Amino acid sequence: LSGMLDVPEVQIECSGTASLIVALTTFKRGSARRQVVIPAYTCPLVALAVLHCGLEPVLCDLRAGHFDLDPAHLASVCSEQTLAIIATHLGGRVAELHTVLAVARHTGAHVIEDAAQALGATWQGRAVGMIGDAGFYSLAVGKGLSLYEGGVLLSRHAQMRQQFRETADQIIPHSFVREARRTLELLGYSVFYRPPLLALVYGWPLRRALRKGRLIEAVGDDFDRSIPLHRVGRWRKQIGQHALQRLSAFQLALRQQALRRIERLVAIPGLTLMHDTVDGQGVWPFLMVLMPTQATRDAALDRLWSTGLGVSRLYIHALGDYPYLATQLKHAQTPNARDFAARMLTFTNSVWLDETGFDQICRTLEQVLAGA
Ligand SMILES: Cc1ncc(COP(=O)(O)O)c(C=O)c1O
To answer: Is pLDDT above 70 for 360?
Structure first.
């Protein structure tokens, strides 16, 4: 993996969240700063990781109609209290980093690239995660390369890599029980990871959560504050090493499929597709689009969410709107993040979604947008 990313070594942790905790704990030790600026629309685990480290998450709004941090808001929330800024390469798309790097340099903050969903993506030809001071990938299920749960922490600075290793030695315990559980889950995953069984294992709980109106549960955003931290065993690392050999061919197939399907999607009037900037070449675990209004987004989901065609939402809310986070986060106006959460849809880019299924999705979107 380090060869692929062009870094002397990478650090394997038990999740992307654990990788972030190791990085933040390291930064916290060397500084009196206590605030971490995070996107107001991202995985709730990011906010929970910051809280876990005894640090204060500060929400930064997004640029209108995009997942990038809003430059003006970013500049206004950063100060001499800012320990780190987290820039997120959301859904395999590559974030704009020039502004984040400039603001961080100006305020003396670290930049952490959240590349949880972007293993294989590059920015100006370098692996994402290698542009800021630190970066991390997730190896959780559905991420292309998976240990069932896992994470990769990396940094381009040799000294920082050494400090991350020392921090992990101090705060990440061995746990036979947790590792045995993940091993069993990985084995179960390899048994069930085929279309008819997936429909059973994921489809049934999804439909039940949707029927009950439990949207946070439906997308798996229902996290509690306890974050499992333990070392990853040798066997799961070997499974990952083995799977890595197939990764680039797999990602190429996904890229080709995505680029083909995008052509059809962008021809649908009213849809905005999330694409990369000139600096970025992303990966395509799924496709993200914005509908013109929340009403059209919800109408599309009413027809498609429970069909098994892989149409869904990413995170249900902007971070401040999760009931379990609301009391932990300082209130901030983040209207663009709310709007993004209200209008966005994701489509699977799985090679198991055949052309008939994709065509059904496109026709439904066309009907919804035509008001039919
Ligand atoms: C953007 C983002 N950041 C962080 C994480 C946390 O990664 P993990 O689930 O491996 O802890 C995720 C999880 O999907 C994510 O999507």
So the answer is: yes
Give me the helices (H) in the chain, please.
2-5, 16-29, 44-52, 71-77, 98-107, 158-171, 176-192, 195-198, 204-211, 215-218, 234-266, 294-304, 323-326, 335-343, 355-369
pLDDT at 372: 67
Mutate to test the pocket of ligand 1, among 19, 20, 45 (most ligand atoms within 8 A of CB): 45
In this structure, what DSSP letter does residue 199 have?
I
Tell the residue number behind the tokens 């969240």, with chain if given: 17
Pairing of strands 56-60, 82-88: unpaired
Contact between 271 and 111 (Cβ < 8 Å): no
Quote the pLDDT of residue 190: 86
| pTM of the shown model | 0.97
- Pull the structure tokens for residue 175: 């746990």
Please give the single-letter amino acid code of residue 219.
V
* Ligand 1 atom with minimal separation from the 19 CA: 11
Atom 10, ligand 1: which residue's CA is nearest? 16
Each residue of 316-333: pLDDT tens digit? Answer: 999 999 999 989 999 999
